[in-house]
Amino acid sequence: MLLEEDPATLIHHTIQNFNIAPDKLAVSRVNESLSTLNQARDLRIKASETALRKLARQLSTVQTQHAEQLAAHRSTDHANAIAQLDTQKFRIAKAASDLEMDTERLSSQLADLNARLTELELQGIEGGDEGGAAGGDAIEDEVLLRLKVYRSLGIDVEREGNDGEFSRAVVRNDRKGDVHVVNLDKKLSRFFYANYFWQTL
């Protein structure tokens, strides 16, 4: 009878009748797939964590830079800078206005001095026609008047000797605190020296 057979034989025949080999292979493949998926998931998690840490560092750096920029460019500092620039602008405008007024004043003085110089030259020519001692006095007076005009401008002319020709001029600018010594050369025209002296003054 069936129950009289060996249990091991019965179990063996039962297993053969169920044919579980394909199921075992399927379970094995499923386990391998699960293992592969777990490994892939772990790799993706690690990559995501690495990217997250990198982004966190970048965020921290950007936040620090942002805080530094805000500290360096505070609204009060900007307002102070604008106020300083406005003050400087007004000072420059005032200085330009003062320079323009000085230029007009000096131009007026130059015109007056040129007119005076022309008048003195004409007087010298009229005085030179008389001849003799009177002519010499007129020339000497003309020289003295010219020297006086030059000194009023801040120009001292020096002779080589007591009766020598004028060889050097000292130009002083009290407003700038400058002193220029100019050697007079006959090769250069009076017009050149006049322009140079005026630019120096």
UniProtKB/TrEMBL annotation:
Record note on quaternary structure: Component of the NDC80 complex.
Species this protein is from: Coniella lustricola
Alphabetized UniProt keyword annotations: Cell cycle, Cell division, Centromere, Chromosome, Coiled coil, Kinetochore, Mitosis, Nucleus
Stated family: Belongs to the SPC24 family.
GO annotation, cellular component aspect: microtubule organizing center; Ndc80 complex; nucleus
Coiled-coil stretches: 96-123
An annotated Gene Ontology molecular function: microtubule binding
Name assigned to this protein: Kinetochore protein Spc24
Biological processes per GO annotation: cell division; chromosome segregation
Function of the protein: Acts as a component of the essential kinetochore-associated NDC80 complex, which is required for chromosome segregation and spindle checkpoint activity.
InterPro entries documented for this protein: Ndc80_Spc24, Spc24_Fungi_globular_sf
Subcellular location: Cytoplasm, Cytoskeleton, Microtubule organizing center; Nucleus; Chromosome, Centromere, Kinetochore
